[in-house]
Amino acid sequence: MRRSTINNPTSFFSILPPESNQVLFEENSGGRKVVLNRTQKLNCLTYDMISKISKALKEYEEDRSVKVVILKGKGKAFCAGGDVLSVVSCSTMGHWSFAAIYYKKQLLLDYLIGTYKKPLVSLINGIVMGGGAGLSLHGRFRIVTENTIFAMPEASIGLFPDVGASHFLSRLPGSFGEYLGLTGAKIGGSEMLACGLATHFVLSKDLHLLENALCEVTSSNISIISNMIDRFTHKVSLKQDSAYARLDVINKCFSRKTVEEILESLENEVKNGAQKWLIAAISSLKSASPMSLKVTLRVIREGRKERLKECLIRDYIISSHMLRRTINGDFYEGARAMLIEKDKNPKWEPSKLELVSKEMVDRCFVAPEDDHWENMHFPYRACPSNMYRPRL
Question: Which of 31, 73, 82, 189 is catalytic?
Fold first, then answer.
């Protein structure tokens, strides 16, 4: 690799294969649209996409003519997450800190969205996972449809629910956040609305009408925007077999102190009746990275006491350890097994929950001792008191 690229890590991203029009920006009289347009990759976020979205959102925030900002994705996904393959390439072809540059940029964007001064409306019509959740679920208005599918499957590839997920998952009713984070279970739009991940449910056929109405608004008043969205909402009920309808059992199992106890509790429930969702939950836990599971449980529970900024700072510390292989190489092994070679047979290290010690997990939560590492610093954002608050 060229010396200039090594001296300037951000230049690494300029030598990756270029893709044009990954993000589209549309202007209307009162609104602006940010449209993810990497459809063949389920709108997974590249460094270039994150940079362009950040720049546009900052400009819109200061532009007095802009009353509302809309985030949406083209194709069958809103956004399926960050571009993991480019992150792996950054670390394996260059240096682990190259990937940290990408990740820091993403977390700064999540913070910008979570503290945005103007009404921001996410139209989540399709798949939303990982980085896509960070892009949409920290915003004030989170619109879902009958096509929406949400999941945080990071533990299955040796990561953990990051991008501030410990902030929104920890605020879900009971232990539903632990269930979603540990198992990577998929839920639909109606369940997202019921548990509080979404603020409104709109039929996909009506989204264009909602978009048109929002783009013509003449005020950024939250109540006015909310009332306008309400005109397009559709009443929906939970399906009998939905995960959220089983909250009592989920609370019973996923409120346990450790991952081992959670797994044991689930296995005891199976003895009373081998329901499909219980078997799926057990299978997910047994196939995920043991280290990732223990980190996931801890971040969600710590997130209950913290602001978004604190969650993001911790996410950066833990992710840096995983990129740096401080404890193990589970992230790289998970990416190999699930995304690159796709043999779906990762060799985790340690291989069992009982081999993951408290000391190993503790190390992930302490800043790395590395000359190439610097902590996250978030700019002060003087948001109105009614704008930045837990919205779940």
Answer: 82
pLDDT tens by residue, 18-38? 577 999 999 988 899 999 999
Active site residue 162: yes
Stretch among 50-54, 195-199, 214-218, 329-333 having the lowest mean pLDDT: 214-218
Among the options 130, 131, 181, 184, which is catalytic? 131
Candidate list 48, 83, 110, 154, residue with the active-site label: 154
Token pair of 35 as six digits: 């449209």
So what's the pLDDT on residue 90?
Answer: 83
Question: For this structure, is 131 an active site residue?
Answer: yes
Catalytic residue among 83, 110, 162, 315: 162
User: Averaged over 142-165, what is the pLDDT?
Assistant: 98
- Does residue 380 have a pLDDT over 90? no
